[in-house]
Amino acid sequence: MKKKNEEVKSEFLFGKRNYVIMLIGIAFIGLGFVLMAGGGSDNPEIFNADIYNFRRIRLAPTLVIIGLGIEIYAIMTKPKK
């Protein structure tokens, strides 16, 4: 049992640096999803070729994958104490 006057010191699982790196990764993922959005057509009878442009097929998924890699790095990095 703990004594009543003992203070329980809670520590974060990650350090400040880890959280900053995680925010950068989330920004990359968010930007990737924003770049993927749109390109549809209001009329289903009309085909819109913009859905297959470079931004939606190459750039946006690459940003999402880079963001996921940054998140993995942020989780695996040891926090500085």
Helix count?
2
- In this structure, how is the largest beta sheet organized? none
Measured on Cα atoms, how large is the radius of gyration? 21 Å
Beta-strand proportion = under 5%
The ordered H/E elements are HH
Kindly state the mean pLDDT as a whole number?
A: 88
* Spans of at least 5 consecutive residues with low confidence: none
Overall helicity: 40-55%
Shape: elongated
Fold and architecture overview:
With 81 residues, the protein is mainly α. The protein has a domain of 51 residues. 54% of the residues lie in helices and 0% in strands.
Secondary-structure blueprint:
Elements: H1 16-36, H2 54-76
Helix pairs in contact: 1-2
Write a concise keyword list for the protein shown above.
single chain, mainly alpha, 2 helices, 0% strand
Task: Describe the structure concisely for a colleague.
The protein has a domain at 24-39 and 47-81.
